[in-house]
Every structure is written in C-alpha cells, then in structure tokens.
C-alpha cells in the first residue's frame, strides 16, 4: 500500500486508490488534444526475442492517447531491422523506428563525430539522445515518456501514470520520475539504489553537509528508475550522459535547469521486474560493477561543478562513512524483507556493499586523474547551432528508413 507522506524537496504523486485505468486514459485523451504525447522505447534487437517486449508492444498497442511512438533500435543488421519493422508493425499508432546501425543514421553520426558533437560510446544514453532528436524533429508531441523494453511485469497503466503529470495542462511539471517497489519472485531487488545510491548520498551529507543537490537526490524514492517523462521543451537543453550515469545525470540536469517545484516523482507500479544485471566482481567494465562506478563519477562530477573539493583523503572519508551506513541499511532491508515474507541474502548484500565501497574509491581516483572528462552528450540546442539543419536530416533519414 502507498502512503500519502511528502518527504524531501520534490512532490510525490502517490497511488492512493488504484484509480481505474479507463478513467485515467479518458482524461489523457482529452489532454492529448492540447498536449499531444509521444512514447520513446530504447531497445536492443535482442529484446525482440526476450521475455518482456512482446507483451509490452501488445499492451502499448491498446493505448488510445499517444500521437507518436519512437523506437530506438540498437545492434541490428539489415535483415534484423526488417524483422523489427514487422515486429512493431502491429502498433496502430503513428510509429517510427530509428535504425541506429543503418547507413543513413550512421552517416549523420559521422557528421556529428567530425564536429565533436556525437555520443562517444554506444549504449542506452546514445539511443535515447537520438530518439529525443527525432521527437524534436517530428514536432508531433509536447509531452514525451520513456521506459525500458525489458519490463516483464508491464501493463499500460504504468505509462498512463508516468505521463499524466507532464500531460495534464493544469499541472506545471516539466519532468516526472517513475518509482515503484523493486520486489519480484519473493525477493527484494534494486541493489544499486538501495545499497549504493542512498547510502552514498547520506555519506556525502556527513562529509560535505546538507547541500541542496544532495537533499534533492535524496528526495527520489527510486533515483535509478529508467522510467521518466518530460515536456518536449526540456529536450532542447538537457545533456544526457552516455554511460550508466544516465538516470542520475538526467536528474542532475533537471536540477540545473529547473526549479524543484517543476519536478515530481510518481508511483507507477505495485510490482516491477526486469532483466537483472550480474554483480560482476571480476570485471569492472561490466554489470553492476561498471554501473556503480559510473554513478559515483556522475555524482562526484556534479558536486565538483558546485565548488566542492575532492582529494584522496576526502574519498577515503566518503568510503568509510558510506561503508558503515550501507551495512546498517543491509540490516534494515533484511528486517523489512523478513516482515513481508520476502527473502534477502545478507551475505550477497554485504558482498555488494564491499564491491560498491571499492568502486567509490576507484571512481574517486578516476575523477582526480581525469578532471576534464565530460561524458555528457551535447544538448540539442548546441548541436543545432553547429549544424542548423540537423533535425531535418534526422527526420528525412528516419522517414526513408521506414518507407524503403
């Protein structure tokens, strides 16, 4: 059951009464006449045969208020792209696939590479960035939602609740972050949020004091959720990180560009499960190990831009403070899980905390050694100023790919 408690410095929109979906959708249809809506789906080709996407598309096909669906397709050759077009053709709404590995979009990427404006690495950040560029180019939406394509517990009420805050013309929100309990198969999930992000923020508060940015991050119930929505004017000047720091980076950008009363979080699901990443203790370039390092770097970089000073000594203090707080959280979550009849492996949780503590130090050392590193993809405003017809080029390339 949800509560009605407001904590932190952003508004929380709860799921208090399980409002019927047809009521929500009826309102959204009326909003769509004033604020047309788009859905962005960043997808790997491999997800077409995964356990989640088929159900997601069947359910999205029933959504009556979307003006556009934009699918970012990664890691697909020509034959696979043809299969993807067939797979998504069941969508009755206006939809377009961005074939990111196709020759037309590759050519645009090369053009931006030559200008020093292209994303530096493959991944979800790059995929989302190009999809947002297409949303700006098509001009079919004023509100846009994004969610992952690996949600095995998906139903379309998640989308309705996610986009409602930015679609309702009576609300003034520019951005809504989805949250939910990470519980599935009788287990408590969401280790990186529970055991890294929240304890790290609390540790940073102890070391640096109660900074506004830290209070802001600490207000989010699930800061790493891949589900968020925004008004399309946000897309022009937001800078998206190209690594695993995507979600934290987007939150940081929203804080930089907007007042906190234009930002909210919304309860979108009672149950949520998706593809789980391995801890990957042996390989720091993969899994939760890389994710945790990228997230730490994103937070450290943001604090540095606000004038906070980091040294090897402060990183040691942060690590030690984090370690104590995180171990206390293991106890807290164990008790919470037990009381709800869920399982929680304390040994695995403490192993994760030990790895995250190491990665806080390695992220800190990387930050000190590379102070000029900027993993952000440039804002679309900057790209348009360098290549004025870039949106036209993207729009034409996508249209040709979808009609040839």
UniProtKB/TrEMBL annotation:
One term of GO molecular function: transferase activity
Keywords, in A-Z order: Transferase
Protein name as catalogued: Glycosyl transferase
């Amino acid at each position: 059951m949800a509560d009605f408690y407001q904590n932190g410095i952003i508004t929380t929109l709860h799921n208090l009464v399980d409002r019927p979906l047809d009521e929500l959708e009826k309102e959204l249809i009326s909003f769509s006449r004033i604020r047309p809506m788009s859905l962005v789906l960043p997808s790997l080709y491999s997800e077409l045969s995964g356990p989640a996407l088929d159900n997601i598309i069947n359910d999205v096909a029933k959504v009556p208020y979307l003006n556009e669906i934009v699918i970012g397709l990664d890691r697909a050759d020509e034959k696979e792209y043809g299969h993807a077009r067939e797979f998504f053709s069941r969508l009755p709404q206006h939809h377009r696939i961005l074939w990111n590995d196709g020759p037309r979009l590759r050519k645009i990427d090369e053009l931006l590479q030559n200008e020093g404006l292209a994303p530096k690495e493959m991944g979800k950040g790059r995929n989302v960035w190009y999809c947002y560029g297409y949303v700006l180019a098509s001009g079919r939406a004023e509100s846009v939602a994004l969610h992952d394509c690996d949600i095995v517990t998906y139903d379309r009420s998640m989308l309705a609740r996610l986009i409602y805050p930015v679609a309702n013309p009576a609300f003034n929100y520019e951005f809504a972050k989805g949250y939910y309990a990470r519980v599935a198969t009788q287990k408590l999930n969401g280790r990186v949020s529970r055991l890294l992000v929240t304890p790290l923020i609390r540790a940073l508060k102890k070391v640096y004091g109660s900074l506004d940015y830290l209070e802001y991050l600490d207000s989010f119930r699930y800061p790493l959720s891949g589900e968020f929505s925004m008004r399309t004017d946000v897309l022009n000047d937001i800078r998206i990180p190209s690594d695993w720091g995507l979600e934290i980076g987007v939150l940081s950008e929203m804080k930089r560009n907007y007042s906190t009363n234009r930002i909210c979080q919304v309860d979108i699901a009672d149950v949520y499960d998706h593809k789980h990443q391995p801890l990957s203790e042996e390989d720091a370039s993969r899994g939760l190990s890389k994710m945790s390092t990228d997230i730490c770097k994103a937070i450290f970089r943001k604090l540095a831009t606000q004038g906070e000073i980091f040294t090897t000594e402060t990183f040691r203090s942060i690590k030690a403070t984090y370690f104590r707080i995180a171990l206390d959280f293991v106890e807290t979550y164990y008790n919470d899980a037990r009381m709800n009849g869920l399982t929680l492996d304390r040994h695995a949780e403490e192993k994760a905390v030990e790895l995250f503590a190491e990665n806080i130090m390695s992220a800190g050392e990387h930050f000190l050694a590379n102070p000029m590193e900027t993993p952000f993809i440039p804002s679309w405003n900057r790209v348009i100023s360098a290549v004025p017809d870039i949106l036209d080029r993207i729009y034409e390339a996508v249209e040709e790919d979808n009609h040839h």
